[in-house]
Design goal:
The protein has 4 helices and 8 strands; from the N terminus they run E-E-H-H-E-E-E-E-E-H-E-H. A hairpin with a 7-residue loop joins strand 1 and strand 2. It comes from Trifolium medium.
Amino acid sequence: MIPLFSIDEVCPVCRKACLYNFGDHTVHCRELPGFKYRHDFVQDVLFDIFRRTRISVKKEAPVNFLTDPQEGRSTLRPADVMVYGWVDGKHACVDLTRVSPLVGLRTETFTVGQATLKVDSSKVAKHEKTCTHNQHAFISFAFDTFDFLAPEVVSLL
């Protein structure tokens, strides 16, 4: 909570969001090189853990039924990790989501894990019904930039 900027400025990288005087945007700007890297790194580690324990798994597995309800059409979005036969013999679509714990800090008091749990429940609401309808399980793998893990992630690990 130490101010890093004297005034609010437009982000020079994404040119969309403001750099608050506390600098929280620099932690979660999607255009910065490290943002996607961390997600992919966690995906690779999770995949490696499954493979080393001889569990059948695939990265970026095409799943035709994961859609974006706002777009109203199939986005043919792959599951970040597909674990075959994981939950009661059903394949599990694991969706990794990295979030900044500082999102919304201006409007609410800071609580550890609050942003992660909110994103986690949003992902479950968005995809779980569709996965269940298509005989798959859905596992949300939500974590934040400060390494807080949602309870479902801890159970999976």
